[in-house]
Amino acid sequence: MMSVRFHSAFSTAVVGVAGGYTAFFNIIPDELRLAMAGGLGVCLVLVALFTTPPEDRRSYNVAKVSLVTLAMVLTLSYYFAEPLSNSLQTEANFVGSTTRLLTVLAAIMYFRFVPQQLPPKLSVAITVAMIAMCAITWIVQGEYVLAGIPRPFPFTGGADGIHSSGYSLISALIATFVLLKTRYLRSSVALVLILILSFLILKYEVRTTWLMLIFFFAARAVVFIQDRYGKALVLPVFAFFVSAGIFVAIIIFSQVDLLEFSSGRTSVYVERLTLILDRNLWQILFGSGAGSEILTSNVWWWEAKNSHNDFIDLTIVSGLVGLFATLSICATSLISADRQQLPVLAALIASSLVSNGLLNRPLIAILHLSTMVFAHELRRFPREQNPKSIRAEQELAA
């Protein structure tokens, strides 16, 4: 069995590489980026599969079986599905998309279940590096106009850099909140980082990041209510907020074109779901392989795109079997997550429900999910017994 020391060293290396990749994306050569992302993904998947955590073994074993099942289905769907007239159905695309998805799911399992420790200074350093690279890129490159909206030039992510930059910054913002909660970060430093990150997130105008933050704080509110008033009030309060949200949404969207507000997503979702239902039994169960999710639509007629919903894309590519395997990993992690890890997972899932979110962006997902290691400290050490506070008290007493 691998020791906590090994996992702490391994996860520190993984997060460090992911942070360097994300922050310095634009100055790293393409070949090196590919090697970093691919090598990191393979190592993380293998370590996750060959690890047995001391707790929640049954849930972790279910997740491992689901991960292997998904890998088999993705391979089966690509090599044995009826070929489509789609130039994107290539082996390179298959390897890339499969590695990306398996890396994110392995990261969910690994950071949720495996005992480990991460240096808080590493997370802060990555956040500062991303802010610095964002500012430098903005100053040097100027603004980037997307959908008629001027935004800071993306500092990471390449062709889809606006969204990747937004996701990177929102993950850093959530990490800052968690580090503040665990008292690993001074309030004054945290306030400065929160203000800068919030400003940049608003400037990029990636609406999915706003939804991630809403889900994060909504989950924290549910956890707070459960801790403060007991489980009996969670469902009624949650139902109240959902009902209130629907009521407000009806008022707002009665004045707003929902199709325009969602950038055409709602119409594309209906198109893609109709496509799935019209398929033969094999494709419904096992999908049509990597690359087959990139299609034209009545709304996005000028370019073939994915559906901007990771779960719908996954169903097209790997069918209901692949979707069930993915949901199984997410569900086992959510059900067994402690009250501080739950909001981090909720934010990740929210990103993929309404866009091509973190399930398709493994390096950013690793940075986001590694926050669960710090969040987990609140279970191992209650707030008043936080290890940093303990050390401070011991130094004061000495």
Automatic annotation (TrEMBL):
UniProt keyword list: Membrane, Transmembrane, Transmembrane helix
TM regions (residue ranges): 9-28, 34-50, 62-80, 92-110, 122-141, 161-180, 185-202, 208-225, 232-253, 314-335, 341-359
Keyword presence, Transmembrane helix: yes
Regions annotated as coiled coil: none
Lineage: Bacteria, Pseudomonadati, Pseudomonadota, Alphaproteobacteria, Hyphomicrobiales
Protein name: O-antigen ligase domain-containing protein
Domain of life the protein comes from: Bacteria
Species whose genome carries this gene: Bradyrhizobium guangzhouense
